[in-house]
Amino acid sequence: MTKAAEIKERKPIRHIAFIMDGNGRWAKKRGLPREQGHQFGVKAFRRVLEHCRERGIPVVTVYAFSTENWKRPEKEVRSIIRLMDRYLSDFEKNMESYALRLRFMGDKTPFDEKMRQKMEKLEKDSVHYKRILNIGFNYGGRDEIVHACNALIAQGAVQVTEQELSDALYTAGCPDPDLIIRTGGDLRISNFLLWQAAYAELYFTDVLWPDFGPAELDAALEEFYTRQRRYGGV
Ligand code: IPE
Ligand code: IPE
Ligand code: MG
Predict the structure, then answer these.
(1) Which end of the chain has fewer beta carbons closer than 10 Å to its terminal beta carbon, N or C?
(2) Measured from the CB, is residue 212 less than 6 Å from ligand 1?
(3) pLDDT, tens digit, 9 for 90 and up, residues 18-48
(4) Residue 69 among the catalytic residues
(5) Where are the alpha helices (DSSP H) in the chain?
């Protein structure tokens, strides 16, 4: 059996999520501005997304910009938004080959009208694709939970169930992530998928995000398959 076939044989991963960290340090190590780290980060993201497709993973979630990342210098923030805008233009042009349902996680109001419309149009136009790409952009796990609670209150809820709250999150309809990978060496969650991560397997690697590729992802999948998931049982 080939490696790819062997991996597919196992209990399938239904949802994988990435904290794509380390772009800035990757650039610094090369004497480049942080913005270039983000550019190479986009290349890594494309490679990893393609590899997730090859591995048959139906839902991919990435953390691209957090609610806390607005603290960064304006120049860097602008360059991240510009990179996203470019990615979206490419997505729009090549939607057939991307063949993904795109969903944004996060409040879109801080972005300009044109960007917001583009985001919303892509969400609408890609809605029929089965594979899902969730992009956390102005995303924070706490913000998401508060946003969901407020939406439920606005609908008249007085009490809510776990299922109702799950269904009001940005990831509504997606299974919880099986595996969350953080690159860049830090051992923390940084406000990512706080609710959904309840029973996710966590994988941390020192590899900086722009250096993360198919081989690193396969190593993480290998490790994942050695984990025993008990969900509180024995
Ligand atoms: C992750 O890389 C990308 C974003 C947070 C937008 P960083 O920019 O955080 O890179 P480091 O952690 O400073 O190396
Ligand atoms: C997490 O990385 C956010 C994204 C990858 C978008 P950060 O670089 O913002 O996280 P901290 O500040 O190290 O916790
Ligand atoms: Mg970082």
Answers:
(1) C
(2) no
(3) 999 999 999 999 999 999 999 999 999 999 9
(4) yes
(5) 3-9, 23-29, 34-54, 74-93, 95-98, 113-125, 141-154, 162-167, 214-226
